[in-house]
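The records we work with from here on pair a chain with its fold. The integers have meaning only within a learned vocabulary of local backbone shapes. A complete example follows; check for yourself that the lines match position by position.

:::
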Amino acid sequence: MAYMSQEGYDKLIAELQRLEGIERPKASAAIAEAREKGDLSENSEYDAAKEAQANLEDKINRLKMTISEAKVVDTSRLSTDAVQILSKVEMTNLTNKAKMTYTIVSESEANLREGKISIKTPIAQGLLNHKVGDEVEVKIPRGTIKLRIDKITVG
């Protein structure tokens, strides 16, 4: 089960509709066009179109699985007492005094440019269930960082 925001769930539904309504017909049309070009045994365009269609169907199936396992979280019921999914956490890296803010989201909603990190990342795992003022040590690929939680809001 993947917990996510309503916004994240709506984006998944829109992407599924786009893939099924726009991309799937395009893939079928590409196959039909390549088929018209003759001998299928030596038709690389046909093979490429079939492979693209298979990749598209795989993507659609994975998206449907994610949607079926999604559990939309009612953000009005979330607490800011401790870090959890959909928490927006303001923190300070105690080594270099850098301030950081991340919202902890489901894997499918993660987007570093928007400050959204997956709940499965080492930083998110290290922050979970901690409170404002807590100092946590988090093991990341480059070593260990020490973070102080400054503020928790609902993202």
The first strand starts at residue 2 and ends at 4.
